[in-house]
Amino acid sequence: YEIYQCDWSSDVCSSDLNRQFYIDHGQRYKYVSLLMGPPGTGKTTLALAYSNQNKRHIYALDLDKSNSGDLKNLIDKMDTKNGDLLIDDFDHYFSKFGKDETEKKEEKKEESDMYGRGQKKKEKISYHEFLTVLDGTGSKEGLNVYVVVNDPEKIFSSTNIEDMALFRDRRVNKIYEFKRSEEHTSERQSH
After folding, report:
1. How far is Cα 21 from Cα 29, in angstroms, rounded to an integer?
2. I want to staple 154 with a disulfide (CB 3.0 to 4.6 A). Which of 21, 22, 97, 141 is the partner?
3. Are strands 83-87 and 57-60 parallel, antiparallel or unpaired?
4. Pair 80, 31: CB distance under 8 Å
5. pLDDT reading at 190 higher than 70
6. In Å, what is the CA distance from 113 to each residue of 104, 124, 127?
7. pLDDT 10s digits, 146-169
8. Rounded CA separation 66/89 (Å)
9. Which long-range contacts link 156-163 to residues 24+ away (Cβ below 8 Å)?
10. What is the pTM of this model?
11. What is the biggest distance separating any 2 CA atoms in the chain, rounded to whole angstroms?
12. Are strands 3-4 and 143-149 parallel, antiparallel or unpaired?
């Protein structure tokens, strides 16, 4: 994947050029932007400002408080002609990136032990469900999604083939990297 420095508005505005590919291949059109960089670099703010400037609604889903099916239900209710979906802190919610299967099973066992016998925990949104919403049967025509990542190393350093499924062709249309400005960083360090 090519990573772009922020030429935001021209890229997002020209995303309609990408629409013909989806039409030609009988797929629902969607546009997914991955915004990555350290906290406080303006990723979420830019997505909100862009949507506001273009008089679009923002539909946001707190993944930590959501259960299986909530993401699909939200997208089904969305007006994709006038709204965008914001998935913030993606890398924190899917924090198992880069862990091998043994580590994942141990965490799952510890989690199930916390609930004790007879208590059922509601299923959270799975990574598979998230991917299905991006480009599978759960997608919706015209869906525009901003996926915000604070720690890209969690995703890009993984050797797990399932983790890399996010980056299959046309699943994420564009990756934007946000960096702290040198002036801001040195000013912050001197205080």
Report:
1. 8
2. 97
3. parallel
4. no
5. no
6. 14, 17, 22
7. 999 998 887 777 777 776 777 777
8. 13
9. 157/98, 158/97, 158/98, 159/98, 160/97, 160/98, 160/99, 160/100, 162/127, 163/97, 163/98
10. 0.76
11. 56
12. unpaired
Instruction: List CB contacts of 130: < 8 A, sequence separation 6 or more.
Output: 71, 87, 94
**Angle at which helices 127-135 and 70-77 pack, to 10 degrees?**
20
- Residue 42's contacts (CB-CB under 8 Å, 6 or more residues apart) are 178
Structure tokens at 43: 């990723």
3-state secondary structure the chain: CCEECCCHHHHHHCCHHHHHHHHHCCCCCEEEEEEECCCCCCHHHHHHHHHHHCCCEEEECCHHHCECCHHHHHHHHCCCCCEEEEECCHHHHCCCCCCCHHHHHHHHHHHHHHHCCCCCCCCECCHHHHHHHHHCCCCCCCEEEEEEECCCHHHHCCCCCCHHHHHCCCCCCEEEECCCCHHHHHHHHHC
For 91-131, what is each residue's pLDDT tens digit? 888 766 545 455 545 555 555 555 555 555 678 888 888 88
